[in-house]
Amino acid sequence: MKLFRPLFAVAAATAITLTGLSAAQAAPAPAPAPAAVRAPGGDFTGIAALSNCSGSLVRFASSVSTDPALILTNGHCYEGGMPGAGVVIKDRASSRSFTLLRPSGSNAGTVRANRVLYATMTKTDVTLYRLTETYAAIQSRLGVPALTLSQSAPAAGAGMAVVSGYWKRIYTCSVQSTIYKLREASWTMESSIKYRQPGCETIGGTSGSPIVSTSSGQVIGVNNTGNEDGGRCTLNNPCEVDAAGNITVDQGAAYGQQTWWFYTCLSATRTIDLNKSGCLLAK
């Protein structure tokens, strides 16, 4: 799990740099020019920082401006602690606060949750918070738009960026493959997204970062873990399990989890209905 861990973070902090700055920003222009258009996943638009993780301000494709806004992060970033295997948290009160970022990575302001709509570490690794403000109110007050959750899984070879609000760092690479099952300690995740390296060597604190498509700008997954020490199926050392039950350990590999499954459980009023036919989220 890519939670912030102080001992690791102290050593890593010296290597942190911001990415996504264009050449036009690096040198002064001789005359006024239109603002540079950043590539999808190339800045911190819609990104959130948590106390121990990263996250993002997200919307569904069908969301409207008057809907309460949502924050996406990992299940293991839930403020009540890591949900056990098979545990699902739904519609629980929360008062957690989040810092939203401007495209440059500077702090735009704070928003607060009033509910945990859904959290689990089973099949996937997600927490979805409902905020006290609507998308329109946040846009008006802080100037921060939401990222749209993709309605489909990413394909192998798709360009991607892991955008960390905690570190204010952007990692870019592509999707290597989809892993049948990923086992880490007592948790099992399904259809995990494996990153093609180099480029996405994520570290503690990047947990909950959105995986942003560099072609569409939509959120195609959520970053959550990696095999740090070469261990076999242990905490911070997930192993890959194929359909035949064969186990593979890939030290240094990093992974994210599916988020499009939310759509399979979405009601007409954009609430999470785990009893909906075809719902893929753990119940």
Helix-strand layout with pairing:
Blueprint: H1 6-13, H2 23-26, E1 47-49, E2 54-59, E3 68-73, E4 88-93, E5 97-101, E6 107-120, E7 126-134, H3 135-142, E8 147-148, E9 159-164, E10 169-184, E11 187-196, E12 210-213, E13 219-226, E14 239-241, E15 247-248, E16 254-257, H4 261-264
Parallel strand pairs: 2-8
Antiparallel strand pairs: 1-2, 1-5, 2-3, 3-7, 4-6, 5-6, 6-7, 9-10, 9-12, 10-11, 10-14, 11-16, 12-13, 13-16, 14-15
What global shape is seen?
globular
- Strand count, sense and closure of the main sheet? 6 strands, antiparallel, barrel
Average per-residue pLDDT, rounded, comes to 90
What's the tally of helices?
4
Strand content: 35-45%
Relative helix content: under 10%
Structural class: mainly beta
Order of helices and strands: HHEEEEEEEHEEEEEEEEEH
Query: What integer value in Å does the Rg equal?
Result: 18 Å
Give the beta-strand count.
Answer: 16
Query: Low-confidence spans: pLDDT under 50, at least 5 residues?
Result: 6-37
Oligomer: single chain
Q: Strand order of the main beta sheet, please?
A: 1-2-3-7-6-5
What is the first-to-last residue Cα distance? 22 Å
Signal peptide: 1-26
Keywords: Hydrolase, Protease, Signal
GO molecular function, one term: peptidase activity
Protein name: Serine protease
